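Lay summary. Proteins are chains of building blocks that fold into shapes, and those shapes determine what they do. In this project we predict the shape from the chain. Here is one chain we studied, written as its sequence of building blocks.
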Amino acid sequence: VLQKWVNREISNFDYLIQLNTMAGRTYNDLAQYPVFPWILQDYTSEELDLNNPAVFRDLSKPIGVLEYSVLYVFFFRYENFEDPLGIIDKFHYGTHYSNAAGVMHYLIRVEPFTTLHIQLQSGRFDCADRQFHSIPATWQALMDNPNDVKELIPEFFYFPEFLENQNGFNLGQLQISKDVVNDVVLPKWAHSPEDFIYKHRKALESEYVSAHLHEWIDLIFGYKQRGPAAVEALNVFY
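And here is the predicted shape, written in a compact code that computers can read:
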């Protein structure tokens, strides 16, 4: 599979799906759901220019430290952490880039994830402000909140329906703007959920991502998962 990918006989999407499968990740287990990277950082432009490297996320860094200003938060947490019982090892992140709650968060508008989300929240939808209601806002929250380090799920590259509230669920209102949470708000450069998926998939297969995807793979599936390389990359999880 590696050789096929290097020879460009299979797509970046196919390679990531195969890697997830080999790593034991599966659609049948929300706690080990396939994980995909955030690949863009431009969610505000009117047009998406895939020839401009500046629109892409730095794939060599964990999602939590893309914003330079929070680097020291994780560095100091690791350096100063000490478990008095000596059981818990040092870590940069107390949460994870992939977990069951995150999968339900993204897929809240489609069953069976809607029901699973309601069960998780003791029989009701979570408050509107905490729900997945906007792609630009979700990206901004990642940049602003050191406690949110969620990567993406494969559906962001092929499944436009999860961005639409086709079932008409009452997901509440945002507190400040009073906007009703309905379909997911898309970046300006996407004119419909289908257009978002098309452009996002095109970005995944772009020349820039093809040249840098191995850097993210090292963090998630490769040698930077643990040990000295993980410490150096600020990539140690609880």
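What the prediction tells us: The mean pLDDT is 95.
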